[in-house]
Amino acid sequence: MRVATDIGGTFTDLVYLDENGRIGTAKSDTTPPNFEQGVIDVIKKSGISPEAITTFIHGTTVIINALTERKGAKTALITTKGFRDVLEIARGNRPDLFNVRYKKPTPFVPRYLRLEVSERLNYKGEVITELSVEEVKAAVEQLRNEGVEAIAVSFLHSYANPLHEKLAVEIIKEVWPEVAVTASHEVTREWREYERTSTAVLNSYVKPIASSYIDKLDKHLQEIGVTGNKYIMQSNSGTTTFEQSKETPINMVESGPVAGIFGAAILGKILGEKNIIAFDIGGTTAKCSLIDNGEVKVTTEYKIERDDRNAGYPIKVPVVDIVEIGNGGGSIAWIDDAGSLKVGPQSAGAMPGPVAYGRGGENPTTTDANLVTGRLSPENFQNTVNMDAVKQAIDEKIAKHFGISVEEAALGIIRIANSNMLNALKLISVRKGYDPREFSLVAFGGGGPMHALALAKELGVKKVIIPVAASVFSAWGMLMTDLRHDYIQTYIRRVNELNLDELNSEWYQLEEGALKQYSQEGITEDKVLFVRYADMRYVGQEHAVKVPVPNGVMDEAAVQEMVSRFHNLHEKHYTFKLDGAPTEIVNLHLTAFGVVQKPEIARLENVGDNAGEALKEVRPVLFEDHGWIDTKVYSREVLNAGSVIEGPAIVEEQSSSTVIYPRQTLVVDEYGNLIINTGV
């Protein structure tokens, strides 16, 4: 049995897939700061036997939380003499160009913990100045006296030759074996000194926390009898072993959210949908990503805490290209200083949660607004909902300010939340040159099905897909993953001057390294699949385009095919191409998948339209532009494959509700997914 658990800001989700392809789910409260306890709770709540778990896959927010809440280890940096201020200097460009009070991000390592040592390589990786062993030892002793818990080592041009970094790490481990240490080449072999140093520092910053968390989780799993293979979800949409995740935990920075994006891509393949907008609304945030022609977009240009006013902190590891905003079911509605209604980014979280949870929450949230408008039923909550308290909170905090009814205020909260989410969806589609009308929207998370149909209408999306187990779909996505490692090596060469023997040697070394790593993880060579890319650009450009490259030995024909693909992709991304202009390779990117066997998804046994049998009740629901409408409410668990429902309607399941607007039509497919024609 394959089991996946996903820790969210409000709930910890579990999905299991048995040998017959049948799916089961469970949810329990997230348990900060002891997140591993929520995992054990949800396993027990699911009723499955721990001994039956052959594969356990886990997604976690521990890493991103440690970074955003500044709860990592006391970290130091050892770097090349003359370059201690690289984190301070950062980049000259800034997001808020005309803000004269703009401040650069405060480094995670203060200046007194950034130490220099004598060593120097040139851009080719050739040694100019040997590493001073004595200076490294002196630096380590100084940092030990400062009470440092983790050290990052980042030397100039180590992406080309990690010789000095490896030696420095050996010295550190020899004189101070207890300290956590990261060398920049261990997390990225890509150039760009600031980004590479930032990544090494952030990996060291979270390394002690990640090791402690994973060790605790592993211990708890063993105590309840889970002895199968254990994996952690990575930000590149693949998995890795518990042991590897402790060495490079920065690869888990978006561990949970990307699993749902990958799951949407897999579901798209099953349903024959190559173009997908994946849309996930949880309790705290809304996430979205675009899947073009079946391909999940992966980037190494990821930054945490970046917004319109802040440059953020770069993390140069492969991360699924995802937009995340602070709008979820628990997002708080509030009035700003100008008297305008806002929703998020503050969240009520799991504790106290929305007013409807009855745990002491006093601020109205999106969930409370959906209750007042009839989109959610009080009967669908685990606790008894005090509707008077919910209405009172919206009345006192929102409605009275505008002199409107509670119901109008609730609808206003939903509209503002939808507007925020619509902006995020436009960022990954319209703003990047994609036409949303050519895509289908896969909506999941507890809130995704509730808001998706309104947003699809605004975007012009014709089809919305609500998957089985929608509220725990990110965990479902983990069940579909293979192991994955990305190896990126900066290799700057003009195409017309390529040495093919040297190029093939570089690919061979990357593949040999991948096979060696997988061998250590127990994956045989016949289970490893390689996918190659080259980051390319026109000579004189700054940024590159990722181009698929044929596997095997590269000859002149393969190089010309690569260049042709680059021209076409450049035109797609930037609306123009320069046929005949000189091109160059910047990075070689090898993605190595460790393929694991996965059972097929079971089809529904019951076929035939039984919407009438699934009807639960008729209740008034408040719709934008339509007012209150008596709306039929259906139980999703009862619906057969082939059932058809005309909107307006609501389809309820254990932890989510799908809101279907007038003139929209829903059909249940053979797997139990809800396929909705938006009427656009």
TrEMBL record:
<dbReference type="InterPro" id="IPR008040">
    <property type="entry name" value="Hydant_A_N"/>
</dbReference>
<dbReference type="InterPro" id="IPR002821">
    <property type="entry name" value="Hydantoinase_A"/>
</dbReference>
<dbReference type="GO" id="GO:0047423">
    <property type="term" value="F:N-methylhydantoinase (ATP-hydrolyzing) activity"/>
</dbReference>
<dbReference type="Pfam" id="PF19278">
    <property type="entry name" value="Hydant_A_C"/>
</dbReference>
<dbReference type="Pfam" id="PF05378">
    <property type="entry name" value="Hydant_A_N"/>
</dbReference>
<feature type="domain" description="Hydantoinase/oxoprolinase N-terminal">
    <location>
        <begin position="2"/>
        <end position="175"/>
    </location>
</feature>
<dbReference type="GO" id="GO:0005829">
    <property type="term" value="C:cytosol"/>
</dbReference>
<dbReference type="InterPro" id="IPR043129">
    <property type="entry name" value="ATPase_NBD"/>
</dbReference>
<dbReference type="GO" id="GO:0017168">
    <property type="term" value="F:5-oxoprolinase (ATP-hydrolyzing) activity"/>
</dbReference>
<dbReference type="GO" id="GO:0006749">
    <property type="term" value="P:glutathione metabolic process"/>
</dbReference>
<feature type="domain" description="Acetophenone carboxylase-like C-terminal">
    <location>
        <begin position="501"/>
        <end position="671"/>
    </location>
</feature>
<dbReference type="Pfam" id="PF01968">
    <property type="entry name" value="Hydantoinase_A"/>
</dbReference>
<protein>
    <submittedName>
        <fullName>N-methylhydantoinase A</fullName>
        <ecNumber>3.5.2.14</ecNumber>
    </submittedName>
</protein>
<dbReference type="InterPro" id="IPR049517">
    <property type="entry name" value="ACX-like_C"/>
</dbReference>
<feature type="domain" description="Hydantoinase A/oxoprolinase">
    <location>
        <begin position="196"/>
        <end position="486"/>
    </location>
</feature>
<dbReference type="InterPro" id="IPR045079">
    <property type="entry name" value="Oxoprolinase-like"/>
</dbReference>
<keyword id="KW-0378">Hydrolase</keyword>
